[in-house]
Design brief:
The protein has about 210 residues and is of the alpha+beta class. Helix content is about 40%, strand content about 10%. It has nine helices and four strands. The longest helix has 19 residues. It starts with a helix and ends with a helix. It binds zinc ion.
Length: about 210
């Protein structure tokens, strides 16, 4: 699939990176033309992100097919933000070989056991990254776990409080703030897609759905 990847529009995007670590990874990928997730240099350049499963016998089975590491730009509110990607370059589920498919569930089991997880979310990005919000066009999963910490007033800066006051004034029905933000975000996405020469709209989960218990 590597050739196909180059034909689409390169290995990934630097502008999608949320932290300097990931921006550096993507800059290197763009310059070398190598996919960062299956680069033979992954261990050398990002070895400190990798999670050690040497105490898990199951990892002997899957380690050749899947790589697991801590996302260096973990999402806020997470205790774990773990990345899982095939060691071979694949972009779609249908590209996986049978042993890679079956090993995948072992990988997730190993991660769950290692960190004693009893709750989490698994998000998969596959196919063309211009439609799935991925930074790297290589089949991968984000395993995201809440840190379960309450959000207290001292976790806000004065600037953030001021910003929230402005947002609440801008939005007319404050009790439905997440629905209004969804509408606003959808408008921003549509407007930006139009401004960028008629791009497709990125698909996002709705804030108002995510907030439901
Ligand atoms: Zn790759």
């Amino acid at each position: 699939m590597a050739k196909n990847l180059q034909e689409r529009d390169g290995v990934g995007r630097v502008d999608g990176a949320r932290t300097p670590e990931v921006a550096a990874l993507m800059q290197d990928a763009v310059e070398s033309g190598e996919c960062p997730f299956c680069s033979p240099r992954f261990e050398e350049t990002n070895g400190e992100w990798l999670i050690d499963f040497s105490d898990d016998p199951a990892s002997v089975v899957w380690a050749g097919n899947w790589r697991v590491w801590h996302n260096p730009s973990s999402l806020p509110g997470t205790s774990h933000h773990i990345m899982v990607a095939s060691t071979s370059h694949h972009t779609d589920f249908t590209d996986l070989f049978r042993n890679e498919e079956t090993d995948f569930f072992m990988v997730i089991g190993s991660v769950i056991k290692k960190f004693g997880l009893d709750s989490g979310s698994l998000l998969c990005r596959f196919g063309e990254r211009r439609y799935n919000s991925a930074t790297v066009e290589h089949l991968h999963m984000h395993l995201i776990v809440s840190d379960r910490k309450p959000v207290l007033p001292e976790s806000f800066t004065e600037h953030e409080i001021e910003l929230m006051r402005s947002i609440e004034m801008l939005l007319p029905h404050q009790e439905n703030i997440l629905e209004e933000l969804d509408e606003l975000r959808e408008l921003i996405d549509r407007y930006r897609a139009m401004k960028q020469g008629g791009k497709a709209i990125p698909i996002r989960a709705k804030l108002s759905n995510e907030s439901q218990e």
